[in-house]
Design a protein that fits this description.
Blueprint (H helix, E strand, L loop, with lengths): L26 H7 L1 H12 L5 H22 L4 H17 L16 E5 L2 E5 L13 E6 L6 E8 L2 E8 L10 H17 L8 E7 L2 E7 L4 E2 L5 H8 L3 H20 L2 E2 L8 E4 L4 E4 L6 E2 L2 E2 L22 E2 L1 H16 L14 H10 L11 H12 L4
Antiparallel strand pairs: 1-2, 3-4, 4-5, 5-7, 6-7, 8-10, 9-12, 10-11, 13-14
């Protein structure tokens, strides 16, 4: 309560003395939601770039706090345990299994550049004058961690989606040269996996010191969390529309299996929806590989909540059974809570929940053993009442 304009502070009985830098051990929640906000917190506190000594201590404090959070979660149920387990995996990924002192979410360098009146972020200036070949820029997607940057281009009345590799993107987790090589391999993947809901690759150009893939433009919203406004609109669509979207996703990944591929790094940012046409679209399949693939990284690329245990295990096989897990995680993202996979957060029938929960089992042998088996059980369960 405020009396006579004075501010009163209560609940101050647990104050302590210690290292003020330790207070940043809760920054994990900011970082998982918005790397830009978390970066701003640190820069605001230090009045610029934090010293390397801070980052070394922060890595230690986050490690200690993450370990301590696991026994803490035991008192609050399985959903909190699962959340903290995922968080511990994220922390390890940020620090490359504690080999690097600076977390990957910290945006050390970024530069704002403008083309045709549209701003976008890079690590440093880059000459995009070659984009005029495709028309005038009207939109940009610069929050990708793939090393690519994407543009909406208008040439007369025709819109195109241009994905470019070779620029120093702000959030890229690979070098420009690595992004170029990956993009080159993407061209064949798009040809092999051509499908009605896969974004249509028109052609590719070696241009601007890199490579540009030119796609048909879709007036669609992305489900990815990196685009909060788009995701909010996406998540408000009807349950029936979401069921149709999921059926489309399943159909595409059954096709992926038939073409001899495994889906790698499929997550909510790969899912788009055209509200006017009621049409699903899949994008960003750059990392799909011929199956079976082998995990040669440890923690592979991807969003943690969509990744199976084998995608964190060096030497593990990545195959159709892995993709069953991915499909189950996608269902939880659409119809429940992918971090808290409890039935209480689920919005569909118990029968559909049981099918989906089986798909995300940590034990490969407990999952459905093929995408087609998952599809068959999912479709059968849709006809079962709650």
């Amino acid at each position: 309560m405020i009396e006579n304009g004075d501010l009163k502070i209560i609940d101050f009985d647990r104050y302590d003395f210690g290292d003020p830098w330790e207070e940043f051990n809760r920054i994990v929640f900011s970082a998982t939601t918005s790397p830009h906000f978390a970066t701003g917190q640190l820069r605001g506190y230090f009045g610029g770039e934090p010293p390397i000594e801070f980052f070394k201590l922060l890595a230690y404090y986050l490690s200690v706090n993450t370990l301590a959070s696991l026994p803490w979660a035991l008192h609050f149920g399985q959903s909190d345990i699962d959340y903290m387990m995922k968080l511990s995996q994220d922390v390890l990924a940020w620090y490359d299994n504690m080999k690097k002192p600076m977390p990957t979410w910290y945006l050390k360098d970024f530069y704002v550049q403008w083309t045709d009146g549209v701003p976008y972020k890079l690590k440093e200036p880059f000459d995009f004058s070659f984009l005029s070949k495709y028309g005038k820029m009207f939109k940009v997607f610069d929050d990708q961690d793939s090393g690519n940057i994407c543009f909406g281009m208008m040439d007369g009345k025709e819109k195109r989606f241009v994905k470019f590799a070779g620029a120093p993107t702000e959030r890229g987790n690979v070098t420009p040269s690595e992004a170029i090589e990956r993009m080159k391999s993407t061209i064949q993947i798009y040809k092999d996996l051509s499908h009605p809901i896969l974004t249509n690759l028109l052609y590719a150009d070696e241009i601007g010191g890199g490579i540009a893939c030119v796609f048909e433009w879709l007036d669609a919203e992305c489900m990815g969390r990196q685009y909060p406004q788009s995701r909010e609109q996406f998540m408000q669509i009807s349950p029936n529309a979401k069921l149709k979207i999921f059926d489309d996703i399943l159909s595409f990944h059954a096709h992926v299996v038939k073409q001899g591929y495994a889906a790698i790094d499929f997550y909510d940012g790969c899912i788009m929806y055209d509200f006017n046409k009621g049409k699903t679209a899949i994008c960003d399949i750059e990392l799909y590989e011929k199956a079976p693939a082998t995990n040669n990284m440890g923690r592979m690329y991807g969003s943690s909540c969509f990744m199976s245990p084998e995608e964190f295990q060096f030497g593990a096989i990545i195959d159709e059974i892995t993709n069953v897990y991915t499909m189950g995680a996608t269902a939880f993202e659409l119809f429940g809570d992918n971090c808290d996979r409890s039935f209480e957060k689920w919005t569909m029938s118990k029968a559909l929940y049981n099918v989906t929960k089986q798909a995300v089992s940590d034990e490969r042998s407990h999952r459905q053993q093929s995408v087609e088996q998952f599809i068959t059980e999912w479709r059968a369960a849709k006809g079962v009442a709650i």
